[in-house]
Design a protein that fits this description.
With about 300 residues, the protein is of the alpha/beta class. Helices cover about 30% and strands about 30% of the residues. α2 packs parallel to α3 and α5 runs parallel beside α6. The longest helix is centred in the middle third of the chain and has 14 residues.
């Protein structure tokens, strides 16, 4: 089997911008706020002078796990991407509730759901602040949103209200992913699409321990009886894991082997501002679709995949 490695990054953000990266940090614009935060993979030197970095509205201190904010900086604040509006926060984990590289996957899902021209039931596991859930619902899917964190669930519900999607067919469930999947299989419930964003390490709502290398293969096999007779999509995204994208690729390919379609895998990235902006790697992904779809990064993806495959 020949496996290319894709490299994807969003090109349609108007409210987000990666301004610079380097020396273990990244400088970003989220709406009208500029943030500086640690980035372990940015081992190169910064391009911008110190001025823009010092002028950041908030800087995350990795030693104290706290944000240093300029006076008057709003927290929380709101941003928009297309028809989606959502709230961002300066969390003690250096995140904001938005992973902007995921806009690539939102568009991919949107195109598949719209092109299907039939009712689509979609399951989103480890769904966090719900932006993928809302993007799928906006495209017309009926979504089941599952997360083990009560604060994250409340945050996602708030994003639903901000996006004016209160009437969308979304089922919100606070649950452990594997236990929920096993119960759904016993109930005979089926889904046309499944999304997963599993952590490297975590705990369920009742203290259930999750380690990616141990739990993920088991979870993938447990998903098999949840697939409908006409599955449309399967998407796996992963942050901070040591495994290769090929691990995700092979597990997705194994699960979907009897359904035809195509599997792709690789990395998501963010591109710095400017015509020669560098790409900052952010996460790994593997995704399966039962039909071809338009992708806004199609040309760049193909070029990068060919370079990676020939390397």
């Amino acid at each position: 089997m020949s496996v290319g490695r894709d490299l994807l990054w969003p090109t349609d953000w108007q409210t987000y911008e990666l301004l610079d990266s380097g020396d273990g940090m990244r400088l970003e614009r989220f709406g009208d706020l500029t943030l500086a935060r640690p980035e372990p993979q940015a081992l190169w030197r910064r391009r911008l002078p110190d001025g823009p970095w010092r002028a950041a509205d908030a800087t995350f201190d990795g030693e104290s796990d706290r944000w240093r904010r300029r006076k008057g900086v709003r927290d929380p604040w709101q941003m928009r991407h297309g028809d989606l509006r959502f709230e961002l926060r300066l969390t003690p984990f250096r995140h904001t509730g938005l992973f902007p590289e995921q806009a690539v996957n939102w568009q991919w899902m949107h195109d598949l759901i719209v092109a299907a021209r039939r009712p689509i039931r979609l399951l989103n596991l480890f769904a966090y602040t719900g932006l993928a859930t809302l993007a799928a619902a906006r495209a017309g899917a009926e979504v089941t949103h599952v997360d083990a964190s009560k604060p994250a669930m409340a945050w996602a519900r708030q994003n639903q209200t901000l996006s004016n999607l209160e009437a969308a067919p979304i089922r919100w469930l606070l649950d452990d992913a594997l236990k929920f999947v096993q119960r759904e299989a016993r109930r005979g419930n089926r889904y046309d699409g499944i999304m997963l964003d599993p952590p490297a390490y975590g705990r369920g709502p009742k203290g259930e321990l999750w380690r990616f290398s141990e739990g993920f293969p088991t979870l993938m096999e447990a998903l098999r009886p949840l697939l409908s007779d006409r599955p449309l999509l399967l998407l796996v995204n992963a942050y901070s894991i040591t495994e290769s994208p090929l691990v995700l690729h092979h597990l997705v390919d194994q699960l979907m082997a009897n359904h035809g379609g195509t599997v792709s895998s690789g990395e998501l990235a963010l591109r710095e501002s400017g015509p020669d902006g560098r790409l900052l790697p952010t996460s790994l992904f593997a995704r399966w679709s039962g039909t071809a779809t338009r992708d806004g990064n199609a040309e760049r993806r193909t070029q990068n995949a060919e370079r990676a495959h020939s390397a």
